[in-house]
Amino acid sequence: MRAIAPLAIACLLLTGCAGGGAATATPTPGGPATPSTAATARAPGPTPSPSPDTGVVRPQGDPVVASAGLQAPWSFVWFDEDTILISERDTNRILERLPDGSLRVAATIGDVDDLGGEGGLLGMAIDDRHRLYVYSTGANGNRIQRFDIIGAPGSLALGPATTLIDGIPRAWNHNGGRLAFGPDGMLYAGTGDAAEGAATAQDLGSLGGKILRMTPDGAVPPDNPFPGSYVWSYGHRNVQGLAWGPDGTMYASEFGQDTWDELNVIRPGCDYGWPIVEGIAGDPRFCDPVQQWPTSEASPSGIVVAKGSLFIANLRGEVLRMVPLTDLGAHEDFYQGVYGRLRAVAVGPDGWLWFLTNNTDGRGDPVPGEDRLMAVPLA
Predict the structure, then answer these.
(1) pLDDT in tens, the chain (379 residues)
(2) Side-chain half-sphere exposure of 332, counting CA atoms within 13 A
(3) Domain 69-368 classification at class level
(4) Using CA atoms, how far apart are residues 344 and 355, in angstroms rounded to an integer?
(5) Is the dihedral of CA 87, 90, 92, 96 positive or negative?
(6) Cα separations (Å) of 108 from 72, 103, 121, 192, 359?
(7) Secondary structure letter of residue 224 according to DSSP
(8) 347 within 8 A of 322, measured Cβ to Cβ
(9) How far apart are CA 293 and CA 278, in angstroms?
C-alpha cells in the first residue's frame, strides 16, 4: 500500500479532507516551504522564473495538494485564472474548484452510462467563448456535447446540452475520451476502438479508434484528410492524450494491449497500425510511434506540452513522465509510485504543472483524502 505523502498528511490533519461522496473537501496546499498556506488557483506558491520557450522544464520539489476528496476524476480545465472545472467519471458530476481549494457541484451530466467500466463522464475542453465541451458515454454510444457555462465563479452551472457528435463506438473499455482545442482553433477528440480492433480502428466509416477533428460547432472542416469525414488519423487502439508543441506538432498518447504503449506524432490521414501492429513496426504502411514503453510501465493517459517538455500522466506505471521535445526517444520519470495512478496533466495560468491522481477508479490503491488535484512548479 502506498504511503501518504507528507503534504497529503498535512492536508488531512489541518483541514479534514474527506474522500466520501460530498464535494466539500477543503485542502490547504501551499508553496513547498509553507504547506499550510491557503491555496489559490493562480499559484499555490511563488511562480518560478520563466524558462525559454523551447527550453526543457522539470518539476521542482514535491507537489502540493490543491484539492482532495475527488471520486475517479478524469479531466480538468480552467474557467478563468482562479477557477477550475473537474469531471468525475462515475458520478457524472462536474465540480467547480474554488480559489481556497474547496469543491462544489456545478452540474451533473444526464443520461451517462459508465457500463460498469471505463465509460462515463470523461474529457472536457473550453473554447475562447467560455463554452464547455464534454465527452461522455450515452445510450447510443460515446458523444461530444457542448454547454454554455452560466453564472459567476463560485456559482457556475451549465445550460442545456447541444450534441455535436453521437454514436462514437462505446464498450466496457477502450472509450478514448480526451478533448482538446488545437492551435488551429479546431476541436480534437481521441476515441477508442471499443475493443473491436480492426472493425473500428481500421474502418474509415467508423468513429472508433480514431483522432477526430471538427469545428467548435461540430462541423467537418473542409481541410480534413478524408472529405466529409471527422477522421484526422486512424488505426488507434485507445487515445487518451492530445497536445501540441510550440511549432504546432501534434502529439498523442495511446494505450497498447499486451506489449507496447505509445507516444505518437500525429499526421493527418495517417494509419497508426492497430490492430495489425502494436508499437514500432518499421512497416511503411503505418506511422510508427516516436517512443514506446512496456504496458506494465506506462498506460499513458493525459499529456501536455510545457515549453520544451512533454509531460505524460501514467496510470499503470504510476509515474509522471517527461519527454524532451528535442529528443522524442528519451524520457525522465518523476514521482514513481508516490502518488499512484495519474490520469490527467495540464499547465495552469500560473505556469505550474497540475495533475490528477486516479486511485479511486477501482484499479488503484487509494489512501485517505484521494483522489487529489496536485500542483508543482516548473523550472
Answers:
(1) 565 444 443 443 333 333 333 343 333 333 322 222 222 233 333 344 444 467 999 999 999 999 999 999 999 999 999 999 999 999 999 999 999 999 999 999 999 998 889 999 999 999 999 999 999 999 999 999 999 999 999 999 999 999 999 999 999 999 999 999 999 999 999 999 999 999 999 999 999 999 999 999 999 999 999 999 999 999 999 999 999 999 999 999 999 999 999 999 999 999 999 999 999 999 999 999 999 999 999 999 999 999 999 999 999 999 999 999 999 999 999 999 999 999 999 999 999 999 999 999 999 999 999 999 999 999 9
(2) 11
(3) mainly beta
(4) 5
(5) negative
(6) 15, 14, 10, 24, 22
(7) S
(8) no
(9) 11
Distances in Å between the alpha carbon of 13 and those of 7, 96, 274, 317, 369?
Answer: 10, 23, 48, 29, 11
C-alpha cell at 212: 477526430
Q: Helix, strand or coil for residue 14?
A: helix
Task: State whether the Cα torsion 258-262-266-270 is positive or negative.
Answer: negative
Identity at 164, one-letter amino acid code:
L
DSSP state letters, 309-326: EEEEEESTT--EEEEETT
Give the number of other Cβ atoms within 10 Å of residue 65's Cβ: 29
Block residue for cell numbers 472509450 = 175
Q: Cα–Cα distances in Å, from 356 out to 67, 70, 144, 161? A: 10, 9, 22, 26
Q: Is the dihedral of CA 21, 26, 32, 35 positive or negative?
A: negative
Question: What would the DSSP string read from start to end of 321-355?
Answer: EEEETT-TT--EEESTTTS--EEEEEE-TTS-EEE
Domain boundaries, the chain: 69-368
- Provide the 3-class DSSP secondary structure of residue 56: coil
